[in-house]
Amino acid sequence: MRFIGVVIILLCMGFDANAQLSKVENEISDDFKQLIQADNDSLKFAICKKIEDSFQRVLLQKESFDYSFSKLNRMGKITSPDLTFRIYNWNCVLSNGSYRYFGLLQYKEKSKIKVKLLSDKTDADMFSRYQPENWSGALYYQIIPFKSKGGASYLLLGWDGNNVSTNKKVVEVLSFEKTGIKFGKPVISWRGKQLNRVVFEYAKQARMSINYQEKEKRLVFDHLSPSKPQYRNQFEYYGPDFTHDALQLKKGIWVLQEDVDVRNK
Question: What is the largest CA-CA distance in the chain?
């Protein structure tokens, strides 16, 4: 009887936790509806700050790690394949057509759940490392674990609406190290240079694909070129040219391979 009583108490605690999570989820869902209707940047930032604060508090609850937050359909939610962390993020389109990103990284550390706020405060370049407090924002849609020296490492594939003329896609490197969480581990070998991430910029009307081939351990992506030679480095004229390149994983380093054959053999 004593055992049954303990089980009933635990079940009630679980139901109570889920009820609290559902309540906060509904409140944040309403905040996102207000964000869509907001007609100025100051109001948009205030609503996003409210979402950040509410969500950061709820993600510290242990039960939140396995909660789906399915009602938050205007927020990106992605879990690492090894189930050690989750990233939640969303974007806000400003009056000048640029994008600001917001995010939270929830992760397991031993028996505890921890949360890092991702603050979009810098433009991504390919030669810098960033901490969560100085993050280069994007919407992440795929996490790829890989083995590398210095701790657990992951590729993050992301999209950035950038501005009225161009979009960007990002191959980011996230690592959990003794000194903390870092974005931009220098494990990408690109034409004789060691990169911290790859940033592709291309015309707003173009579509660029990046696909991970798990069996071959490589990322295959469209090669981008200007529509005319005179538009070199004017990225609003860039798009796929029907050739493909790849990043091949070799001993913990992602090595560029150019003009790869992607046909089925």
Answer: 82
| pLDDT band, residue 16 (cuts 50/70/90) | confident
Distance in angstroms (rounded) separating the CA atoms of residues 230 and 211: 30
**Would you state the structure tokens that stand for residue 126, as one six-digit string?**
């390919």
The Cα-based distances of 213 to 217, 243, 247 in angstroms read 6, 17, 10
Least confident of 6-15, 83-92, 114-123: 6-15
Cα separation, 245 vs 259, in Å, equals: 5
pLDDT of amino acid 1: 54
Query: At 112, is the secondary structure helix, strand, or coil?
Result: strand
Token pair, residue 105, equals 């990284």
The answer to whether the beta carbons of residues 171 and 182 sit under 8 Å apart is no
Structure token pair of residue 143:
């996490």
Q: Where are the beta strands (DSSP E) in 69-217?
A: 76-79, 85-93, 99-109, 112-119, 139-146, 152-160, 166-177, 180-183, 188-190, 193-195, 198-203, 210-213
Measured distance CA(164)–CA(236) in Å, rounded:
9
Q: Is pTM, for the whole model, over 0.85?
A: yes
Spatial separation of the C-alpha atoms in residues 65 and 136, rounded to whole Å: 24
